[in-house]
Specification:
Elements: E1 2-7, H1 14-23, E2 27-33, H2 37-47, E3 50-52, H3 55-59, E4 66-69, H4 76-85, E5 89-92, H5 100-113, E6 117-119, H6 127-137, E7 144-152, H7 168-171, H8 181-191, E8 194-202, E9 212-219, E10 224-230, E11 239-244, E12 247-252, E13 255-260, H9 282-292, H10 302-321, E14 325-326
Pfam families: GFO_IDH_MocA, GFO_IDH_MocA_C3
Domain Gfo/Idh/MocA-like oxidoreductase N-terminal: 17-118
Organism: Clostridium thermosuccinogenes
């Protein structure tokens, strides 16, 4: 049984991760730390575990093998470097940190101690992305020219995101730093190495962070991915569109359809493809990797976190300086 400590309930996904840890049946939560002592002690009581006000004290405990980091994004470097140097395996919410320099500090600590590190990149596990990745590897799209990926919700316009979500000193950014991670890390998973990025960020509802964002990324293979995200769109279905010289894949929520040149002799209509099984969720991968000592799973490790932050950091630079950034 893996002993896990929850590091902060700041992130809106923290409770979900705690539930996922327990749902594995292979891990238990033994302690909570939170930069907000009142919030943390209340959460520890709900989870039936102890609360540690001091992070160093928690990390020195023998009944903590691993940690789940849901602290403010701007605290990630300090929290995770300490956790790694204490020999604790690390699962973290995205983004890994606001800057590549901070990510590299975490990476050095992880490499030095050899702990398992997993970052939450859940869209990579989904059936449609697994199908698309397999088709790309098999060359079934031919030459891909354009990919479009969208994630959005109405957290600002619907008024349900907490006020602290708009404090850049804690979040490191707005919609792009949060939901915008999903299209970005998915684009790299599908298309490989990015070479240039440009972005446009707006705040139509007037909060102090970006509420809507679009980034266009050019990849080494010549494909361009448009990554779209928003805190101000109502009932937005997740969207994945892949346009190649030999095939087109369109996915909107659970509606997935495919048209390929190879099927043209049979039908000119879109077909509904058979989707593969989803991969396990990142939390489940993390628990299994820690127990089985198999290391970070492919596509969810330190380098994946660094690659995502490189895109995020340069997208903010692009918007701020009104220019295309070479990566």
């Amino acid at each position: 049984m893996l002993n896990v400590a929850m590091l902060s309930k700041w992130h809106v996904h923290a409770e979900g991760y705690a539930n996922q840890v327990l749902k594995t049946g292979k891990a238990r939560i033994t302690a909570v730390w939170d930069e907000d002592a009142d919030r943390g002690s209340q959460w520890a009581a709900q989870l039936g575990c102890s609360f540690e006000k001091d992070l160093d004290a928690l990390l020195s405990r023998d009944d903590v093998d691993a940690v789940v980091c849901d602290a403010p994004t701007t605290m990630h470097r300090d929290v995770m470097v300490k956790a790694a140097l204490a020999g604790k395996h690390i699962f973290t919410e995205k983004a890994m940190a606001p800057t590549v320099a901070e990510c590299e500090d975490i990476a050095r600590a992880v490499e030095k101690t050899g702990v398992t590190f997993v970052i939450s990149l859940p869209q990579r596990t989904t059936p449609v992305i697994q199908l698309a990745r397999k088709m790309i590897k098999n060359g079934e799209f031919g030459k891909i020219s354009l990919v479009r990926i969208r994630n959005g919700h109405d957290g600002v316009s619907g008024g349900w995101l907490p006020e602290y979500w708009f404090d850049e000193s804690k979040t490191g950014g707005g919609a792009l730093m949060d939901l915008g991670c999903h299209p970005m890390y998915t684009s790299c998973y599908l298309l490989g190495k990015p070479v240039r990025i440009t972005s446009l960020l707006t705040s139509p509802f007037g909060t102090k962070v970006d509420e809507s964002a679009t980034a266009s990324i050019e990849f080494e293979n010549g494909a361009v991915c448009t990554c779209e995200t928003s805190f101000v769109t109502y009932n937005t279905p997740g969207a994945v569109e892949i346009y190649g010289s030999d095939a087109t894949l369109l996915a909107y929520g659970r509606d997935v359809k495919l048209k390929t040149k190879s099927l043209g002799k049979y039908t000119n209509e879109y077909i509904v493809p058979t989707l593969p099984e989803a991969l396990p969720m990142p939390v489940e991968m993390f628990v299994d990797a820690c127990i089985n000592k198999t290391g970070s799973p492919e596509g969810f490790g330190v380098q994946d976190g660094i690659d995502l932050t490189r895109l995020l950091e340069n997208a903010y630079i692009s918007n701020r300086e009104n220019r295309i950034v070479t990566l």
